[in-house]
Structures are given as C-alpha cells and as structure tokens.
Specification:
mainly alpha; 5 helices; elongated
Length: 154
C-alpha cells in the first residue's frame, strides 16, 4: 500500500474503492430505480412528437441539474462524504439524478428534430437545455448555500 496524501478525499476503513463495495452499488441501484421510474413517467406523460420541443427530457434534465446542485452543496456543507451523507449522495446524486437525467436521449432528440427539418428547434433545444441546466444547478447550489455549514472552508 502507498501513503495517500490526499486528506480531502473520502476515507473508509474498507480498502476497496467505493464503486466495488456492495452497499454502495445497492444505494446507487435503489436511487436508479426511482430515477428511471420518474423519467419513464415523464416520457409517457409528455411523449416526444417529431419536430416539436421534447418537454419530458427537457424537464427531467433541468430538474435533475437543480436537484443535483442542491443535494451536493447541502451534503458538502454538512460534513465529510461518509456514513449517511455518502449513502444519500449515492442514492440521490448518482442513482436518482443519474437515472433521471439523460444525455443520450437529449442527443437523440436533437438528431430527430434535425431529421424532421426542425433545425431551429433543435438548435434552440440544445442551447436552452445546456444554459438552463447550468443555471438550474447554480440555483440549487445557491439555495443550499443558505444552509448553515458544519465544515470549515478555507
């Protein structure tokens, strides 16, 4: 073993990397089930129509960006990435938000809009999604930054 000089990184008595620990995989899986179910509901409720704005994917991606920013900032303010905070991050951040949001469907819908000769809609969808996603994540971080912090920041 080598001496890891990165004290800012999460530590755990379990020597295996986090992605190889069964409990961590279980938390991500459980969150993924919920995120996938929510995205499926959104896609079924607001189905994609050729040539029109893909509202379901747009909505889940913007919502997911906000929730992820809020969650990660709140957890960072509460302390080290260990114990319950780590499980919440794995469930809510990696699992739920990872399964809820979708870059692949976003890219496919841009391609489908272009094929349907809705090039302006495709370009607007791409730009607005990215810009609003960044703004939504920033708003989530901003909202969480109003919480009292338990960690000392340099």
């Amino acid at each position: 073993m080598h001496d890891d000089q990165h004290g800012e990184l999460p530590t755990d008595p379990d020597e295996r990397p986090l992605h190889l620990r069964v409990h961590a995989i279980g938390w991500v899986f459980a969150g993924g089930i919920l995120g996938t179910g929510l995205r499926f509901w959104a896609e079924e409720t607001f189905p994609f129509v050729d040539g029109q704005w893909p509202w379901a994917t747009f909505g889940v991606n913007i919502t997911g960006a906000f929730v992820l920013g809020l969650l990660l900032e709140a957890l960072a303010r509460l302390g080290r990435d260990e114990g319950v905070r780590q499980r919440i991050r794995l469930f809510g951040g990696t699992g739920l938000c990872g399964a809820l949001t979708t870059y692949s469907t976003f890219a496919l819908e841009i391609t489908e809009l272009t094929r349907a000769s809705a090039v302006v809609t495709a370009l607007l969808y791409a730009v607005v999604s990215v810009v609003l996603g960044v703004i939504a994540a920033g708003c989530g971080i901003g909202l969480a930054s109003t919480l009292p912090s338990r960690t000392a920041r340099a």
